[in-house]
User: Fold these one by one.
Assistant:
Number 1:
Amino acid sequence: MPLVSDFYAAYDSIPCPQQKCLVHLIRDLNDDLLKCPYDEDLKRIAQAFTALLKPMVETIDRYGLKKRFLGKHLARVNRFYRNLFAMTLNSPIAVKLKDRLEKNRGKLFTFLSFDGVPWNNNNAEHAVKPFAELRHIIAGVTTEKGIREYLILLSLCETCKYMGVDFLDFLRSGEQDIHAFAFARNRARRDPDCEYGKPFRPLKPLFQNGQPGQAGISFFVNLFDDFQKFFGNVCSHEGKSCFST
């Protein structure tokens, strides 16, 4: 399966098929056009690239990320590069863009030859947003163990989200394989007698008559203990835990 990434050079050393994010490329191209609105050489390349990419996006919107339908655009990619190679350019910024397109030729349109490979890494960037938000919450003070445990839960949560599985249901099921759990839940929708089709046993009420019951007291005690263990490592000031008295 190809690696979908931005143009960070470190990814180039990974020995696998790669798909560079075309949204990043388009963004850089737009920035160049805003800086040099009268550069005719740059406009020629931008117009040719737009004419190449637009039908691909329309195909994806209609049929999805399926090589059966996307493969027909490979001939247009080859024609684009033949025309690009034949261009005589005088603008330094246009020459730089041409070199970039030629250098990454084998990584810009990999998605045309695979099923389910996106042409951008928007999903990945969206998935790491919760981690970016956590950095602001903890203000950069944490431990390796705390970050590792958080990233494991974040990875599970985001995987469940993209597979259409409820994260809490997966944790409560005791299953360790998200794909197996998702498959079983889909099967349960077709087979009411399947074990996974049965609802989870209801939890004991946390409150009774407006007051915390025994289950509620145990729940909040355990929750506070977990909270203290985690943030006792994360939130510190001058080497002293924020829970210290």
Number 2:
Amino acid sequence: MFYCPADSAVQFAVPTETAGSEDECLLACAAMDNTGDDSAMSGASLQCRIYHVMAGVQISIAADDESGVVEHCPHAGFSSDSGVCGSPCENLCQFHETVCGDQPNFLSQADCVNVCDSFEAGVLDETSGNTVACRLYHVQVAAKSDTEEERIAHCGHSNNDGGEVCGTICDAYCGLQFAFCPDNFANLAECMQTCGNYSTNATLGATGGDSVQCRLYHVLVAANSATADDIAAHCSHSDATGSDVCVVPSTNVDTSDAGTDGTDGTDGTDGTDGTDGTDASEPDDSSDFSVSLICSFVLFAFALMI
């Protein structure tokens, strides 16, 4: 009987805390990148994981021992902690775009990988702390969630700000400051103290206004800017002063041209609402069926090991 051991990261066949049941495994499997080459032995794709599942089974059967699954199962896990089927950051960002793409998050998948590399690695399957491992755990839980409320909650925890679970927003902000805008603060303690005084009364992704969310947005843009001028500009927007961007909006109103109010004109008749466009054709479900078939095949492969 050959199977992926429980200590080899998060496996398809092992009901660890993250992998969950077979049904939950299928949900997470369907969220993986399914565009890899069928013979792929590396890269953050479903095909790479299938290759290592089958290689482990075949080697162990031929050798009549567990050498194959011990070697290859770590590559086949959701997180691929071994770094063969994608790095932890590649897997985090691929899952995040697929599962949490409709939520406020990293600017893009490529930006996510760049920013992710500045987080501490952490320990596989840890559920809190400003680390890659914590975010990867929660995005995988989001992938197998069976309710929208649960999905949204865990997507938030896996986000760039940590969702107050994978670190606080100030943990994320100050970590990114020293990674990408190191001249804004003298040390981490100064940054954390200053951040604690920022307003949090804004939404994630705010581009203006005196808030920590605005400053976090601009340090993320700085992290992914291609020119020195852009980096300097966005780093300045993210510092303690806000540099005329992350500041309280001006309330001054120019009244020099104000004359005596005239009689209000009659409101014009509202235009006729345009006819709603014809709904686009329903998308082809064949790709979803293909992924489900592949994921079912993976589970069947593991059944052969038992």
Number 3:
Amino acid sequence: MPKMRHEAILGLVLVVVGLFILASNMEFFRIGSAVIGLLLFGGLGVVFLSVYRQKEENWWAAIPAGALFGLAGVTVLESIEWVPGGLSGAVFLWGCAVPFILLFRREPRFFWASIPGGFLAVLGLLALLSGTRLGGAFFGWLLFWGFGLAFAVLFLKQPSRWWAIIPSGVFFSLGWLALLQATHWAGGSAQAFVFFLGLAATFGFLFLIRNEQNKLHWAKYPSIVLLLISILCLFSALSWGGLVTIFSIMMIAIGLYLLYTNRKEGSKERP
């Protein structure tokens, strides 16, 4: 059976939708706007989907196809009274996200698609939560963590893209900062400590994955500087009693290390 060309599919969609609208206008029967929207947007989505499936070069057609399928779902959900408003926005954003995620999983050359796909997927989740009590508290940190996860997946897919670790670490650090601010767990100095510690860990991770190809030996310098800044922020956040506690713990740790190394060297000197 020969495949229908996308022009034929588009023509069929227009004819069907036009007949439904004409019949409804002439009062042969009544149809709602949800049905018209479902047929129109869903049919146009099928057109772009057929274009996408014909040639590999037509990968771009998957993006409007997902958006149109999302709009078709929105028209149906908007006609149902008990459906929360946030669900409609989530369905549309997820419909836009799916093509990017599928392109990312399809071929390595579409590595960039993980970024808009992840952003749209997270925005869809936030839109779903916007109608609940959790929406305000979860919005900031969940948004940043979703963005960080998108860049982390980009690195995990191909480790040669080590640069994706930097925005991923920044977004995850901002996510922790937003979480602390939303929950009022800590003051400004403690929040700064968490943020700079996250940045230090980001560059520390880059230093740990160094090799002759990526030449990431330089990452230890910003990691050390950011770690020192985070420690200064921690000291400014603590009271005198807290500083004494940390200082005593550091003394104990250094003493145990010296005892361990001394015992190790003594065992080597024994005949």
Number 4:
Amino acid sequence: MDTERVRVLLIEDNPGDARLIREMLGQVEGTTFELECVDRLSTGLERLTTGSLDVLLLDLNLPDSQGPKTFTTAQARSSGVPIVVLTGLEDEATGIKAVHQGAQDYLPKGEVDANSLARALRYAIERHRLLGELKAHETRLRKIITSDADGIVVVDANRRIQFVNPAAEAILGRKAQELVGEMLEFPVVPGEATEIEISRQRRGTIVAEVTTVEIEWEGASAHLASLRDITERKQAEAALARADKLRALAQMAGGIAHEFNNMLVHMRVSADLALMDLEEDPQSAREEIESIISGASDAARAVRRLEVLYQRADDLSDFVPLQLDALVREALTLVRPRWRVQGFTDEEIPRVRTNLTQPPLVWGNPDELVQVLARFLGNAIQAMPRGGTLSVATGYNHAWSFVTVSDTDRGIRSEVEGDAFEPFYTTRSHVADELGMVTAINIIERHGGETLVESNPGVGTSFTLRLPTAEGLDGDKGQ
């Protein structure tokens, strides 16, 4: 069986120590140590330049160099050969210092035997090989990170920046030498993707998506944050949202124009009738004038729908504390007269059941929320052309107060249930005041609310409006 061959260069000026080391290496079984010995550091350094060595065994006190300087000089000229240093019995601190500076091991003279010497040399060679592989892997990783199109930032456990690739320099608007050593300004949350705004000098503000993972960097725990510039994507999304809103406004404007025309015709007819009846039938004239006033109020509400569509979401100056029970009663009062106007017979008018529980108050605009609830109620009524049961309930659940409107229609098919809150979506072929849900959606968003739909075919559909509660307010008060 072939034996392992290890080529050793010993730099030792004491002939006795050199002879002892040669004898000990000769006693080791299974490994052939080919030992070369020189007595000067300068001679050893010349030998290192020729290569073909596996390990350097170095005495730190030589005629031409003494102490720690001997190791640092040899390390600088070792051409990648691992070094094991030899120290005196009372000079262990020097050996430890050499290990901290990069020596693979140290051996105190007088405490070394054949086995410990052979083991130290073998371990030095293997550790050096593994360290070389690790450094090569790290070099490849750095090249990959450096060339990555996404920005890469590595931070230590204290969120201090350790590495920045060129893409991150471009995203952050600063050079790596300026960033390394500074504290990272945004939080790092492993496993979560977050969006942040980055303000850059003379280059404006961008939006970046940040994804963070835990890694080990240069032997210590660290975080790697991947930054992707999504400014153009966010701008495109905003532009698309504006376009959708403009389309919704155009459709709403067309519907409102039709409403206005009907209102004006009605008001003109009522005015003509009032003039005719003014002297002969004052009571009829009064009723016609009241109809004109009602039409004007309807026109004002139509204009209000346009205002709501483009009202700033952060303008909450019109919000007051509200009790949902009161809003439900007002919305029911508003929709009940429409049943007769729409020609419902007594059998077609739905039965109304309420379960109002006085949930905690919410902040909001009462007119807008009544409008939303009236639309929910109106949709539910329209869904039951042959009559049925209209149920309205209020409640509270985990910081939300809610209203649920349920009908006993055939239900919404599962394939269209997700479209229930799309602007202008409807399952009916002819609906008066068909402007969809766009106004309601904008009102709900402005109030920080949510809408939920649950439908069971053959049983009916429930629409729920959830609104955040107004903290610190008494639930039995408010409008």
